[in-house]
Amino acid sequence: MTNSDVSWPQRTERLLLRRVTESDIDRLLEFRNDPEVYRWLLKTEVDKDALRDAWMRTLTEPGEHSSLAELDGTVIGTAGLVVRDGMGQDGAAAVVGDEAQIGYILDPAYGGRGYGTEIASNLLRIAFEDLGVRRVVAGCFADNTPSWRVLEKVGMRREQHGVQDSWHAELGWVDGYTYGILADEWRATRS
């Protein structure tokens, strides 16, 4: 799969999901490096150049469909979507590009208004309708209640509760959750 499999920008009820540009990096850093945000990310603070490089790679790497969430012209979050190969034996054509992983970051100033759910819901739609994947997964720290609530609101099921499987810079070893949903399950909820 290539980035051309998704037509950008994408619209939700209230948001515009669009690809990143270099001019977005300063705005991303405003909320990405907020302690309230990076507390729940695998990587804590990042510098501007590292973030710019990482986001600019999303425009060209195969399987990368990550975007920004914009509300009335202001970037309020990120919408991560990466297509990858599912697990299986070597040479199994059935697993090539059949799974996607989603993630999202929301500026805390916009929290509690359903934007995270709107982003995650649209990521599932893009993954299943536009990209035709078989399965979507997501993960979070177990203590990140707002994140796992979003995943459950969009119909994903908790598939794993890893006991002290994730390192947290402030809390040490903490529990993590893995969520998943199959294309057939997602379609059944839309009927």
Describe this structure in words.
The radius of gyration is 16 Å and the shape is globular. With 191 residues, the protein is an alpha+beta fold. The mean pLDDT is 89. It is 29% helix and 31% strand. It has a single domain (3-138, 146-153), classed as 3-Layer(aba) Sandwich (Aminopeptidase), CATH 3.40.630. The longest helix is centred in the middle third of the chain and has 16 residues, at 115-130. The protein has helices at 25-32, 35-38, 48-57, 115-130, 145-153, 183-190; strands spanning 10-11, 16-18, 67-71, 74-84, 99-106, 135-141, 157-168, 172-182. The chain starts with 9 loop residues before the first strand and ends with a helix.
Quick summary:
With 191 residues, this protein is an alpha+beta fold. It is 29% helix and 31% strand. It has one domain (3-138, 146-153): Aminopeptidase (3-Layer(aba) Sandwich), CATH 3.40.630.
Work out the helix count. 6
Q: CATH homologous superfamily, by name?
A: Gcn5-related N-acetyltransferase (GNAT)
Secondary-structure arrangement, i.e. CATH architecture: 3-Layer(aba) Sandwich
Number of structural domains: 1
How do the strands of the widest beta sheet line up side by side? 1-2-3-4-5-6-8-7
Low-confidence parts: none
The helix content is 25-40%
CATH topology: Aminopeptidase
Biggest sheet features: 8 strands, mixed
> Which overall shape is indicated by the principal axes computed on the Cα atoms?
globular
Gap between N and C termini: 27 Å
The average pLDDT score comes to 89
